[in-house]
């Protein structure tokens, strides 16, 4: 129906907006669960290129009939994203990723399928880019399962919730960063709220930097100096080391 098309278009527009793409060049985007290519139409309108993946031959047939501008791939994203490293400048997905939480076959393990999807997606995205996945979670357990596997795969970021106080307009966008932790965008319709309980931020604390007692040595002075040195060797611009490097800040309040 036209209403569905309209909602799809709005969500595609919002997802692309949350990607924060550079305005001065055309980008190559991955559209996960592209269906008949409605979100792709918006990407094309914005002057970007896209490749769409979907598990449904029928939907892709419709996309072909509609003569969409993107390239199409019939594939199950639970088996992974089969593209070379760093190929995409961003990824969007409209109403698709929650399906990975279902075990449709005896052999399907949702956590494994989600991890396979996120880890291969992480590789296929250029450093510094984002993935914005709009999804309809059935419950908070599903949200936690999805975000936990995204973190395991190396993403940072979190959930942006638009119109959290509206039953009808409420929309979840999992906004993921690759290789840099950006600031999580604000959800629409949250201006009136003073704090942001609806934005499930997950930290970029990766668990591998733990010492014996389980205390994190990540963000320690040594860890930071080592990382800065590594980045200098890669020829990146890094701030000079000072006596403040690695110092704990006071909590806000």
UniProtKB/TrEMBL annotation:
Q: Which GO terms describe its cellular component?
A: cytoplasm; nucleolus
Catalytic activity, reaction form: a guanosine in 18S rRNA + S-adenosyl-L-methionine = an N(7)-methylguanosine in 18S rRNA + S-adenosyl-L-homocysteine
Single GO MF annotation: rRNA (guanine) methyltransferase activity
Q: Which branch of life, at top level?
A: Eukaryota
BP GO terms, sorted: rRNA (guanine-N7)-methylation
Primary location group: cytoplasm
Cell compartments where the protein resides: Cytoplasm; Nucleus
- Compositional bias, Basic and acidic residues, is annotated for 235-244
Q: Which residues form a coiled coil?
A: none
Q: Where is the Methyltransferase type domain?
A: 30-106
Per UniProt, residues of the 18S rRNA (guanine(1575)-N(7))-methyltransferase Bud23 C-terminal domain are: 176-250
Q: Where is this region: Disordered?
A: 225-253
Q: Which UniProt keywords apply?
A: Cytoplasm, Methyltransferase, Nucleus, S-adenosyl-L-methionine, Transferase
Q: Which CDD domains match?
A: AdoMet_MTases
Task: Give the matching InterPro entries.
Answer: Bud23-like (IPR039769), Bud23_C (IPR022238), Methyltransf_11 (IPR013216), SAM-dependent_MTases_sf (IPR029063)
Role of this protein: S-adenosyl-L-methionine-dependent methyltransferase that specifically methylates the N(7) position of a guanine in 18S rRNA. Requires the methyltransferase adapter protein TRM112 for full rRNA methyltransferase activity. Involved in the pre-rRNA processing steps leading to small-subunit rRNA production independently of its RNA-modifying catalytic activity. Important for biogenesis end export of the 40S ribosomal subunit independent on its methyltransferase activity. Locus-specific steroid receptor coactivator.
Do you know which PANTHER family this protein is assigned to? 18S RRNA (GUANINE-N(7))-METHYLTRANSFERASE-RELATED, METHYLTRANSFERASE-RELATED
- Describe the protein's quaternary organization and the partners it interacts with: Heterodimer with TRMT112; this heterodimerization is necessary for the metabolic stability and activity of the catalytic subunit BUD23. Interacts with GRIP1.
Query: Family, per the entry?
Result: Belongs to the class I-like SAM-binding methyltransferase superfamily. BUD23/WBSCR22 family.
Q: What is this protein called?
A: 18S rRNA (guanine-N(7))-methyltransferase
């Amino acid at each position: 129906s036209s209403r569905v098309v309209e909602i799809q278009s709005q969500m595609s527009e919002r997802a692309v907006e949350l990607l924060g793409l550079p305005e001065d060049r055309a980008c190559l985007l991955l559209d996960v669960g592209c269906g008949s290519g409605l979100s792709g139409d918006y990407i094309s309108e914005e002057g970007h290129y896209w490749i769409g993946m979907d598990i449904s031959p029928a939907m892709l047939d419709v996309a072909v009939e509609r003569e969409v501008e993107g390239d199409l791939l019939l594939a199950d994203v639970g088996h992974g994203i089969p593209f070379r490293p760093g190929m995409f400048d961003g990824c969007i997905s409209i109403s698709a990723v929650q399906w990975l939480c279902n075990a449709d076959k005896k052999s399907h393990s949702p956590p494994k399928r989600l991890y396979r999807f996120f880890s291969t997606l992480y590789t296929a995205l250029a450093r510094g880019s984002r993935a914005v996945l709009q999804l309809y979670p059935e419950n908070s357990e599903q949200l936690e399962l999805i975000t936990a596997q995204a973190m395991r795969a190396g993403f940072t970021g979190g959930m942006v919730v638009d119109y959290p106080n509206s039953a009808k307009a409420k929309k979840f966008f999992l906004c993921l960063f690759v290789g840099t932790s950006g600031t999580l965008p604000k959800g629409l319709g949250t201006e009136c709220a003073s704090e942001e309980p609806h934005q499930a931020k997950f930290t970029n604390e990766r668990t591998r930097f733990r010492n014996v007692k389980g205390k994190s040595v990540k963000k320690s002075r040594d860890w930071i100096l080592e990382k800065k040195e590594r980045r200098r060797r890669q020829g990146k611009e890094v701030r000079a080391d000072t006596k403040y490097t690695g110092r704990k800040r006071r909590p806000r309040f």
